[in-house]
Automatic annotation (TrEMBL):
Gene3D superfamilies: DD-peptidase/beta-lactamase superfamily. This is Beta-lactamase-related domain-containing protein. Residues 39-349 form the Beta-lactamase-related domain. InterPro entries: AmpC-like (IPR050491), Beta-lactam-related (IPR001466), Beta-lactam/transpept-like (IPR012338).
Length: 379
C-alpha cells in the first residue's frame, strides 16, 4: 500500500464537531446515540468501497450535528478533503432542477400539463404527448443517455444545440406515461424548458434564483475551462485499483448532472430546504410527491419516484434519497428533519460500494430506527 493511499485510512481522516446555528452545541451532539462512533464505521466503509475522499454531514432541522471529512481530494498532490472541497454532485442536480421547474409552476409561468412540444421548436412527432410532469418523474418514455458519441466514446465538447439535436434524434423507449425509465435526457430537456420560460440560461437562472441568494458561493455549473479552487480530483475503481476517472467532457447545458458544490454550501442548501425562507414551500413539497409508485415489499409502506427524488414511506415517514454517479448521496427524512449529505470523489460502479451506504450508516448513527444498510423496499 502506497503512502498516498494509506493516508486516507487514518492520518488525515478527522472529524469536525461544529457549533453552528441557534444552539447546536457539544451537549446536544453528545446526547445523540452512537453519533460519536459514526466516523469509525465510515472509515471502514471507505476502505471497503475504495473511496479516496469524502465529506459527510448529519443535519437535524437544518442544523449540522456532525460534520466529518476523510481522506484525499487529490491523491497525486496529497491534498486532504475539507468542507470547502468542491465535488461534482452529478444527479443530485436533479432535485435542484425539479425544484426550479416547480418554482416556475407555482409562479404560474409553466404548467405541469404543458407539453414538451409547447416549448421546443421542431420537436419530433414522438414527443407530442410528453408532458412536463412526465419529464420530472421519468415517465416520458425517453432513454437515459442521448449525447452523440463516436464509436461509443463521448466527444470533448457539446454545444446546447448539439445536445438538443442528439436528443431529438434519439429513439423513444416507450409511449409517454406507460413506463418508468430513469432518464438524463428528460432532465436535460427540463433545462431547455427552464431556459425558454425564464429567458435566462439554466446556469444564470439557478445562480440568481437559488445559489447566490443562499450564499452558496462555491456552487456553480460544470465548466471544464474554469479554475475552481479546492476542486476534488475524480477517481474510479477499475481492475482492482483506483484510476483517474477522466471526466473531461464539456457540456453547454447540464441540468441533469452538472452542479458542482462543497459540503459547506450544501449545508446551506439543506438549511433552506428544512426551513424555507427563499424557496417556495409549495414548490418544494411538490418535489416530494410520488408520481410513479414501484412494487413494494415488506419493509416499506410504499416507495417510488417523485420529482428529482426517490421517496420511501416507512411507518408513515417520508424519506427522500438520491445518488449521483460521481460518488454522492443525499438522504432527507422530511418528517423528523434528519438529513445526511455524502460527497465522495469515487464514481459509482456496479462492482463497488454505493455512496448511499455511507449515508445510511450516518443516518443510523443519528436515528437507530433507520437501518444501517438502508431500506430494501423491493423485498
Amino acid at each position: 500500500m502506497t503512502f498516498r493511499v494509506a493516508i486516507w485510512h487514518s492520518v488525515f481522516a478527522f472529524t469536525l464537531f461544529i457549533i453552528l446555528v441557534d444552539g447546536v452545541d457539544a451537549k446536544n451532539i453528545s446526547q445523540l446515540p452512537h453519533i460519536e462512533r459514526v466516523d469509525t464505521r465510515i472509515n471502514t466503509l471507505m476502505e471497503e468501497g475504495h473511496f479516496p475522499g469524502a465529506a459527510i454531514t448529519v443535519i437535524r432541522a437544518g442544523q449540522p450535528l456532525h460534520v466529518s471529512t476523510h481522506g484525499m481530494a487529490n491523491l497525486a498532490h496529497e491534498i486532504p478533503v475539507t468542507t470547502q472541497t468542491v465535488f461534482e454532485i452529478a444527479s443530485l442536480t436533479k432535485q435542484m432542477t425539479a425544484l426550479a421547474v416547480m418554482t416556475l409552476v407555482e409562479e404560474e409561468r409553466l404548467s405541469l400539463n404543458d407539453r414538451l412540444v409547447d416549448w421546443i421548436e421542431d420537436a419530433p412527432p414522438a414527443w407530442d404527448k410528453i408532458t412536463v410532469d412526465q419529464l420530472l418523474s421519468h415517465t416520458a418514455g425517453l432513454t437515459h443517455r442521448f449525447e452523440r458519441t463516436e464509436h461509443d466514446v463521448l466527444l470533448l465538447e457539446y454545444s446546447r444545440d448539439d445536445m438538443l439535436a442528439s436528443a431529438k434524434s434519439t429513439s423513444m423507449l416507450a409511449d409517454p406515461g406507460t413506463d418508468w425509465n430513469y432518464s438524463d435526457q428528460g432532465y436535460f430537456l427540463l433545462g431547455i424548458i427552464i431556459e425558454e420560460v425564464s429567458g435566462q440560461s439554466y446556469a444564470e437562472f439557478m445562480e440568481a434564483t437559488f445559489f447566490r441568494p443562499l450564499g452558496m458561493d462555491q456552487t456553480h455549473l460544470l465548466d471544464q475551462r474554469k479554475i475552481v479552487p479546492h476542486l476534488a480530483q475524480g477517481y474510479a475503481w477499475s481492475n482492482g485499483k483506483l484510476q483517474r476517472n477522466r471526466r473531461v467532457w464539456q457540456f453547454a447545458l447540464t441540468s441533469h448532472f452538472g452542479v458542482m458544490s462543497s459540503l459547506d454550501d450544501l449545508i446551506r442548501w439543506e438549511a433552506e430546504l428544512s426551513n424555507p425562507k427563499l424557496i417556495n414551500r409549495k414548490a418544494l413539497e411538490a418535489t416530494w410527491q410520488i408520481q410513479r409508485p414501484f412494487d413494494t415489499g415488506r419493509q416499506c409502506d410504499t416507495w417510488g419516484y417523485a420529482r428529482g427524488w426517490q421517496v420511501l414511506i416507512v411507518n408513515g415517514r417520508r424519506i427522500l434519497n438520491h445518488g449521483g454517479y460521481s460518488g454522492t448521496a443525499y438522504i432527507r427524512d422530511v418528517d423528523t428533519g434528519l438529513s445526511v449529505i455524502v460527497l465522495t470523489n469515487r464514481e459509482d460502479t456496479s462492482n463497488a460500494l454505493h455512496p448511499l451506504s455511507l449515508g445510511w450508516e450516518a443516518a443510523h448513527a443519528a436515528d437507530s430506527s433507520i437501518p444501517s444498510d438502508g431500506y430494501r423496499c423491493w423485498e
